[in-house]
Amino acid sequence: MKTKPVTLEDVLAAKEARYNRQQVFKEKYRKTIVSITLNVPGAVKDTPVLRRLRDYAAQEVKKQFEILGEEQINLITGPEALLAIDTEGWLVKKAAEKIEEAFAFSRLLDIDVFDQAGILLSRRDEGKGRSCFVCGGEFVVCRREGRHSMQDLLHVVEKLLQQFRAYETRCISPAAERIGALAVEAMLYEVTCTPSPGLVDRINSGAHRDMDFYSFMASSASLGSYMNRCAQAGILHDGAVDALLPVLRIIGLEAEQAMLASTGGVNTQKGLIFLLGIMTGIAGWLHGRSLPVTQSTVLEHASQMVKGIVEKELAGAIHKSVQELTAGERLYVTYGITGIRGELAEGLPSVRYKALPALREALDKGLSINDALVHTLLVLMTCVDDTTVMHRHHPDKMRVWVREQAQMIIEAGGMEAGDGRHRCEALDQKFIQENVSPGGVADLLAVTWFLHSL
To answer: Mean pLDDT over all residues of the chain?
Structure first.
């Protein structure tokens, strides 16, 4: 939708028009009246997400009271709503205050309540006031004294709207369910393909002592709803694809907590939450715009979404002390290794040009899904800078030793060969002895199956 910048004259005219609408509404119903507007600074006050925020507030009121009448209007000064309720005014006011305080983003709501006599009920009548959404101080004081710049206000509003976008993904559409189901399938297929050298599979826990096959089953089960929500976030997103990433990260952080709760605090799939969250989000975004949802379009838009992520999230690591560095930052500072961020920024070339063709070829030759996935896993080991392995060892352990081991099996026929399974089982034992667990490769295998299934 096109948006028009709002002038002071527009705001004053809208205020007067709102007063007149309220008077007509009061006269018509002679009941408690709820008036919903939004606290949004800046020149643009009417966008799809702001209309949805108004609708959210109205729906929350409807959940608690029988509505006698309702009017909605969308103006350049912002979306508004009026509702008539046959309930004592202060009971409605208390409920409105709870709605305004339920979440951080609720601070953007301004829900006025008029009693049956038409009198505005105010928090200040109870000695209360609303807090500033920038500093937490008293809102009227901050506004009167101009304590915050417009840039600060707009920055905070965008953060709050991102939280609202994450919240509204809890209502899942059938399309988001389908996309999310593919992501969960990819998680499950990755951990069930056996033998997976150094990784948790159906036979053993690989080079891990804190997780097993059932840890991954529990973890994957806990993440299904979050994959749905990432897809739904994409479907609802009305901006450029890069602006979707902060919303996906909010959902991803919630998903991490669910994963940890399901595994007793063990990190089984944190990296996969990041990767599949982005993949499902982009698939949803493409679907929502009626664009083709294909392997190519998803990977191309993944690159666009994270453009500049290496510079934004890793370049600053050179200024940190050794003690402050994360594992990924340490590899970047010491060796220039960009890990999965660099892979994503390039559109996951290991998946696009290596893994997907290998998987298709293996399936076309008649290999079972299990054996085709194991074969693809070996192919990924020959071309991916797996930072999980590099963190435990020197980068050459991955770039030289692991690649040589995987390449030897591939050259011997891989899972097509009669002794392919035996060779992979032997490599599994070797990886366990060397404490090598290519978890990053496993994540990319799951992404490969997800894209293959689109």
So the answer is: 94
